[in-house]
Structure formats: structure tokens, C-alpha cells
Write a structure and sequence with these properties.
Helix 1 (2-24) runs antiparallel to helix 3 (37-60), helix 3 packs antiparallel against helix 5 (70-93) and helix 5 (70-93) runs antiparallel to helix 7 (106-121). The protein starts with a helix and ends with a helix. The chain has seven helices and no strands. The chain has one domain. The chain is globular. The relative contact order is 0.09. The protein is mainly α and 122 residues long. It comes from Aromia moschata. The chain crosses the membrane at residues 33-52, 72-94, 100-121. This is Transmembrane protein 60. Keywords: Membrane, Transmembrane, Transmembrane helix. InterPro entries: TM_Fragile-X-F-assoc.
Length: 122
């Protein structure tokens, strides 16, 4: 089962990188939201799996132990990643919005300390 997840992850990344290379080399003029679609499909699958595991655990545990669940952190990480991807797509696709770079990278700046703490605590 783990092998299938790893292969699926690599396949999604391969599709994303192929679309990204085609767009960056100016061979296509697709919308940036279309380029990031494989990543959003993968994030949606992760989000559904994490929410499903939270609901399963919620039935069997009390609310205090629920916040120790790693799936809640996964949901927060996936939502911040999706927000960062959306702001990046908005900056790249619509130059008339005049989004500043620190506005675009704000979800990443929130996400990085969370991940550093999570990695260092384990």
C-alpha cells in the first residue's frame, strides 16, 4: 500500500513538472491554475484522507486527545499549501492585481515555522 502511495505521489509530481516546464518554456500559454491542477488534486486527496481519519478518531476518543492528532496538523498544512498555491497563481496569471511578493509568500512564511516545530519535536 505504501508503494502505491509513493508511486502516485511521484506520478503527480511528474505531471506537474512537465506542465510547469511547458509553461515556463513558453510552448503553451495555459492558465497557471491549470498548471497547478495536479497539485490540487493531490492536496484534495490528502485533505479527504486526513479529515476521514479525524472523524474516525473523533468517534473513539474524547475531545482533549483529538488535538494531539497529527491529522489536524496535516489539514492545516494542506490548507496553507493550497492558499500559497492560489496566491502564486493569482500573481503569475493576473499582473494587473499588483500583488506584492510578501503577500504571495505569506502562507509559506506561516507554514515554515509550523513545519520546523513539527520536525524538531519528533
Amino acid at each position: 500500500m505504501v508503494m502505491h502511495r509513493a508511486l502516485f505521489t511521484w506520478f503527480i509530481l511528474l505531471i506537474f513538472f512537465i506542465l510547469l516546464c511547458l509553461r515556463l518554456e513558453a510552448r503553451t500559454h495555459w492558465n497557471w491554475f491549470l498548471i497547478f491542477l495536479p497539485m490540487w488534486i493531490y492536496d484534495l486527496i490528502l485533505l479527504i484522507d486526513a479529515l476521514f481519519n479525524i472523524f474516525i478518531r473523533c468517534k473513539h476518543e474524547n475531545i482533549r486527545n483529538l488535538f494531539k492528532n497529527k491529522n489536524i496538523l496535516l489539514v492545516a498544512v494542506v490548507l496553507l499549501k493550497i492558499a500559497a498555491q492560489i496566491t502564486l497563481c493569482l500573481k503569475l496569471e493576473y499582473a494587473a492585481l499588483n500583488l506584492q511578493l510578501y503577500h504571495v509568500l505569506l502562507p509559506f512564511w506561516i507554514l515554515l515555522p509550523i513545519l520546523i516545530v513539527d520536525v524538531s519535536v519528533q
